[in-house]
Amino acid sequence: MNIKFVRIKKLKTLLIFMLCLGLIMPGQLAFANKYTEYESVELRESGSNVFKKYEPVNLMISGIDVFSDAPGITVNGRTIVPVSAILVELGVKYKWNGTTKEISFSYGGKDVVMQINNAYATINGKKTLLPDSVAPRIMTYKSITGDYVDRTYVPLKFISDVLGLSASWINDTRTVAINKKAQTLTGTYVDVYKPYPEIRFKVTGEVDVTSFVVDGADVGGQDKTIIDFQNTKLTPPSGATVKNGVWTYNIVDDIFGIDKIEIAQTNDNPYNTRVTIYQNERRGNDIFYDAAKKEMVVQLINTVSEVSVDNIYSTDTVVIGTRETPYYNVDVSGKQLTVDVINSYLRINDGAYQVLPVDQGKIETIAYQQLDTSKDDMYGPDMEVTRVTIQLNEKMTYDDFYVEESGDKLLVYITNQPINNFNYVKQSSEKGMMSIDLFSKTDYTSTFDAQTRKISLDIPKDKTDLGTFEQAINDHVVDQFVISETASNYHIEITLAENTTYTKSSSSSAIVLNFTNTVIQNSDNKKTLIVIDAGHGGKDPGAVGSKSQEKELTLRASKLLQSELERLGFRVYMTRSTDEYVGLYDRPAIANDLGATLFVSIHINAFTNSSASGVEVLYGNESMSSDKGLAQNIQTQLIKSLGAVDRGIGYLPRLVVLKETTMPSVLCELGFITNAAEQDKLISEDYLKKAASAMATGIVNFLK
Ligand SMILES: [Zn+2]
After folding, report:
1. Strand ordering across the sheet containing 500-506
2. CA 541 – ligand 1 centroid, Å
3. From ligand 1's centre to the CA of 368, what distance in Å?
4. 130 C-alpha vs ligand 1 centroid, how far in Å?
5. Which stretches make up the MurNAc-LAA domain (predicted)?
6. Predicted model pTM
7. Which of 95, 342, 533, 559 is deepest in the core (most CB within 10 A)?
8. Residue 592 neighbours by CB under 8 Å, 6+ apart
9. Cα(23) to centroid(ligand 1), Å
């Protein structure tokens, strides 16, 4: 394959057009539930026809929340869990024999056969009494949608005694944490001589790790990658710089965009060692275990986590989401466009080849894969390359598309209409800049109509080359751009947002307009950072209604709340802004790390009785009167604005996001997806906008 190296015009700064109508990536299928938001769940013992209420428990395996089709519960102070959910999460295949009522599986060198209502199991052919002489039993869970789910339950102790794993009970959040056996982290160093630089951690054995990123630079702080070494004790080596329990490892000269690494023991039941990598440049990573050296390795390399199709500047655009500013090759051959993201790992579908049907404009399909560079003479075998192939329905040349680096995204515009000469950049919450590149200096006319808030520019057609397009922006600085043409001119119409002023400057090579929203610029609210947490996402749909899923509604409501708060001058950080899963413990950790002022989690309710409806706001810290105050302020406004049933505010201390946050935090349940009439309301943009506006008013009133 002949790949030409093409570096098409690079934008100087970050673009913000991310109007996502992207494809939904096929993900892991899971029977998600939201037990954590319930006070109780209903189950029935086999042989009984009476459903009883039990307290649900959260399940976490290797630091990752488990979404099982039946919940873990406590019975008479003993925690019992659905064994199939644990086995599935551990990747263990099991067999169920309905006649003999036996479950059999192999794990950790043990062949296990156990039978319902029999306290003896067969382990490696030997009859063995199960922990505390408790037999596995079948229980029936009555789900929120009224389905009955039969599952085999075993005591938690089974997990440690039979599977040889470590099981801890976290009482605060009523969570069972299941991990590999505990290990110790004893040292760290950086290896720069590898194809990709590596941060290596000396450990006594393999550990499970989870990681998340905090894009702090977006809200005036610093970018970080945070890695949790699950069930890992920290013993810093002698000579390490340790202060207040935090071991700091400085990186000389900011090498690879990394400033320093902090390592701390953040929990001791189970042990958690948290590694925080401070970054001056956004870096991706891959984490693996080097068994020969007994080291956990954090390899610094870009990652591709999204490939989707969007419509940007009214142009069909393939969006390749990466972690770092991407380095890439582009090739066009007939109806096929190939984009290689060099030095990157594909984080979708485990890197395996996958084709997605698109059928939008000229794009027929998009496909992606981690390239086998050992079989490709274009790249060396040590290089990691993600290949995205765009199949078109007509032949193209290099003039028919163009590629733009936009922060950590690569945008491939499929167009016959070059739009190279028009740029709009949102520089900060209150500032934006538009520039139009010129072939040579020109006289142009501009007018501003204060009534309609429209700026009109007329530029002679021989001085630049613009397409015609219409693009809504609505970023509180600019509302809209419209470009049309007459016989001799391009006519550009810019609608300014409320409170935006502008200045003009131009040179022989460009016309530049700078916009400033003066109300946001002068707002005291800028001091306040609000973290919005759109509930669920990705593998976890949350509650599922007849027409919608909780995760979609929470994201829409969260984005509307974000917009409303930004309009009021607040700094806002979203724990997620796409359909991705963020760990239950990572959400509060992000807010804590950012030192946020408030944390607002957004959810949609569900109940077995479809007549249940209304709004409630939950808080988790009774001693912190501010939590209750924030909840009450938001609840009052939501009821006033939505006219929904007032379910009041509720104290739910075991909710992870409320328990773990160190600032006033609330969880808003905006209505019931299981109530047909309320679901219809929740789907409508108007209702969600009202809810967002009410929540913002509640926040403002609380902060007064
Ligand atoms: Zn929820």
Report:
1. 422-426, 431-437, 510-517, 500-506
2. 9
3. 32
4. 36
5. 588-700
6. 0.88
7. 533
8. 660, 661, 662, 663
9. 23
